[in-house]
Design a protein that fits this description.
Elements (H helix, E strand, L loop, with lengths): L11 H28 L6 H20 L3 H19 L13 H19 L8
Helix pairs in contact: 1-2, 1-3, 2-3, 2-4, 3-4
């Protein structure tokens, strides 16, 4: 058996570019999930379904546009961070994401769906 060819080390500029893109993706996903967290309870169940669709479409776009899964994973981290932040009680004790069915669906579906999208293998291009 022939050994697998060694992977070429990524040059420094590629790693820095990937890091900057991951931070940008996490920030954009955080902003989108933050905004949709406020609207997920509007017009039940359509607000919830629309928010989930928007968040998952954003993560899917990151996965389709960029070659690396790191960008999509960073987007999922941004989504989870925004939802987790808004599940905590505010200064006055108010909550945005409540402990009910809508809150649990909002917390779990974007997280699990986003993780699935980020982990999904890329389709090989036929030549």
């Amino acid at each position: 058996m022939t050994p697998a060819p060694a992977r070429e080390p990524a040059d420094r500029a590629t790693v820095i570019t990937l890091g900057v893109a991951a931070v940008f993706a996490a920030g954009v996903a955080f902003a989108v999930a933050f905004i949709t967290s406020f609207t997920h309870r509007e017009l039940p169940p359509w607000g919830l379904l629309g928010g989930i669709a928007v968040v998952l479409a954003l993560v899917a776009a990151f996965r389709l546009v960029f070659d690396s899964r790191v960008i999509a994973a960073a987007g999922v981290v941004g989504v989870v961070a925004a939802i987790a932040l808004l599940m905590l009680p505010g200064a006055g004790g108010s909550l945005v994401v409540l402990d009910d069915a809508f809150g649990w669906v909002w917390a779990l579906v974007p997280t699990l769906g986003g993780a699935t999208i980020a982990a999904w293998p890329r389709r090989r291009m036929e030549s």
